[in-house]
Specification:
Number of domains: 3
Order of helices and strands: HHHHHHHHHHHHHHHHHHHHHH
Shape: elongated
Structural class: mainly alpha
Strand content: under 5%
Radius of gyration: 36 Å
Helix content: over 70%
């Protein structure tokens, strides 16, 4: 009788599984290239979204900080010449800025209890303003007319006007501002009049402080005094009750000097003689000589600024401003206008707190892209399993275990995910840089956030590999559970 020897089933290692998976990819090169392309596009989309969001977000925030610095200098200069409007005072009281509250306390003689009450009233009024400003144009025309929110609030102090307002709200099926009729009545009849009275006292105190500074300057304009002696103006402003602790008066003086040069430059266009001379210099019709064209011309070359300074010197109405200063101020003015166009409003600070700064719409787009990617990879792997039924059956007949079959397909998907991920991440970073540079130009911030940008590429690569492996789990289970004899009968 023939002796039958039972041997242990062959168990191939992970390295051999990967080698066979790679061989299978090479053999089915076209299908593998399609899968790699699908993965590459998904990873490129994710890497592009992450990297562009990081670079553009940091660039926007830096631009906004620079613009805010310029705006603050302009605001501080204006506050030394004219009192804050009521809307600005409301903004400061809602935010409870210590420097501003210290000024207001000194100018209006406010007590601590009064301050807390005014903060609450200011927050309520600002909430009312936001609710009114949030109306669409048609609703606003019906409810408010041509009034602003504060004028409407004064009108609502009249019970009959408030009753008519509530009727119109009910007809339009709109909620009552401030949460209810009683709250609205209290705001209009008590809180706002009390707040307005104190704000008027603050504005009057602000006017007295301005007059005190003007008297101390002995006939000089504020800009002239700042340019001549910033420290002297700082001392006079502090004595008048202005909060000057963190304000750089040297920068304020430079800002005032540049603002004066720009204003005087643009005022020269009121002279027909200057305009005609500029028309000849610029070689354009007289009607096309305007401030933007003049600034562009001055910033382009210092020789243009020198020629313009000669025109001013020859005119009895103007004095030379200095070619170097003219070119510098014109270039700075154009740069600020360009930055303002790039970032017209404050960047989303809530999105900036996230690692990559993605907003909700971007997250949904990425989720949809990877859902399509998973379906595409799973379909490609399922087709690969289907056309390899005979091969799988042969390997099982030769002793291959289910684990080996499953690992082979998972490794194949992982290799495809790695190849597609590397190419997609590189393409995504390149596209993000091209898009960012086309939008922001040389202002684009890259190197300071390079670590986060590279992290975004690695994240996209890792997600691509993970999705490829997960998409292959289902088809690999189908292949592993396939009965050898059943697979051999498949044509």
């Amino acid at each position: 009788m023939k002796e039958i020897v039972a041997r242990n089933q062959v168990d191939l290692g992970s390295a051999r599984c990967m080698q066979l998976a790679f061989s299978g990819m090479v053999f089915r090169l076209f299908r593998s290239m399609i899968t790699v392309a699908i993965l590459g596009m998904a990873v490129a989309f994710l890497a592009h979204m992450l990297a562009y969001t990081v670079m553009s977000g940091e660039t926007s925030r830096r631009i906004w900080r620079e613009l805010e610095s310029e705006r603050r200098l302009g605001t501080e200069l204006r506050r030394l010449e004219s009192p804050d409007a009521v809307a600005i005072l409301l903004f400061h009281w809602q935010r409870a800025e210590p420097a501003r509250l210290a000024e207001h306390r000194a100018w209006a003689g406010l007590e601590d209890e009064t301050e807390e009450t005014l903060k609450a009233h200011a927050a309520a009024v600002r909430s009312f303003q936001r609710q009114i400003d949030g109306l669409n144009p048609r609703e606003r025309a019906i409810l408010v007319g041509d009034r602003n929110a504060l004028a409407l609030l004064e009108n609502l102090a009249d019970p009959s006007a408030r009753a008519a307002f509530l009727v119109r709200l009910d007809q339009m099926d709109r909620p009552v501002p401030m949460g209810g009729e009683a709250e609205l009545a209290r705001l209009a009849e008590r809180d706002w009049p009390e707040l307005e009275r104190h704000l008027s006292a603050i504005r009057e105190g602000h006017r007295r402080a301005i007059r005190h500074v003007e008297t101390a300057l002995e006939g000089q304009s504020l800009a002239e005094a700042l340019i001549a002696s910033p420290e002297r103006v700082k001392q006079r402003a502090a004595a008048a009750g202005f909060s000057v602790g963190d304000l750089d008066f040297e920068r304020l003086a430079a800002f005032a000097r540049d603002a004066r040069i720009q204003r005087q430059t643009e005022e020269t266009l009121a002279s027909q003689v200057i305009r005609r001379n500029l028309s000849r210099e610029l070689n354009v019709p007289l009607v096309q000589v305007h401030s933007q064209r003049l600034l562009n011309w001055l910033a382009a070359d210092v020789r243009n600024a020198e020629a313009f300074d000669v025109l001013l010197e020859e005119s009895p109405l103007f004095e030379p401003l200095g070619a170097a200063d003219l070119q510098r101020v014109a270039a700075r003015a154009l740069e600020l206008r360009r930055l303002q166009r790039l970032v017209p409003e404050e960047p989303d600070l809530e999105a900036a707190e996230n690692l990559f700064g993605l907003d909700n719409s971007a997250r949904w787009l990425i989720l949809l892209a990877f859902l399509v990617c998973v379906i595409g990879v799973a379909n490609a792997m399922l087709m690969s399993v289907t056309e390899r039924f005979t091969e799988i059956a042969t390997m099982k007949c030769l002793g291959a275990m289910d684990k080996f079959i499953m690992l082979m397909f998972v490794f194949e998907a992982g290799i495809q995910g790695l190849l597609g991920g590397v190419m997609g991440a590189a393409a995504g970073l390149l596209l993000a840089w091209i898009r960012g540079f086309s939008e922001f130009g040389g202002t684009l911030v890259v190197w300071p956030v390079m670590g986060t940008v590279l992290l975004s590429a690695l994240t996209a690569l890792g997600v691509g590999i993970l999705l490829a492996v997960l998409a292959a789990v289902g088809p690999s289970l189908v292949a592993a559970r396939l009965a050898p004899m059943e697979a051999m009968r498949v044509d």
